[in-house]
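ugh ok fine here u go
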Amino acid sequence: MAPPGWDWKPPTGDEPVPVAAAAPAPTVRARESATDGVLATGRKSAPLWDARLTIALLIIGVLGVFSFVQVQNSIPQAIATLYEQEGLGSYTPAASVSGIITGGLIAQVALWFVAAAISITLLLRRRRAFWVPLAFGVISVLTMMGIILAVMLTDPTLLGHMESTRL
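structure:
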């Protein structure tokens, strides 16, 4: 149904339709997409703050990896200090302690690289990525706690002392 007063007549013959009457093509400014931030999948692209936060969290993650590596390397010295404070004698690390610590160091570095790879992939796809370094940071802390626990479990003297001081 046409609105009142509107009249349409089909073109007669081979008359070309005037192109000048068509609307001008929209101009796209720099840093703006023609689809107004909507990706081909129909999702909106991630906001600019997400990329900045993700990169900042990855940089903080590098600092965290360096500090966790130092903490893991100092576990035997920390246990030796505990031995001295508690009067347990001298501490001699088990043969497996160096392997556990080395595995922990490799795990910390590998976790950061995986987090960086996933974050960069998501950023290139214009998807939210800030959660990736946060999640891998939590996994990294849990890994470090597991390494410390594994080293402590290799020492029967320390375990016996902890059992005797249990309330």
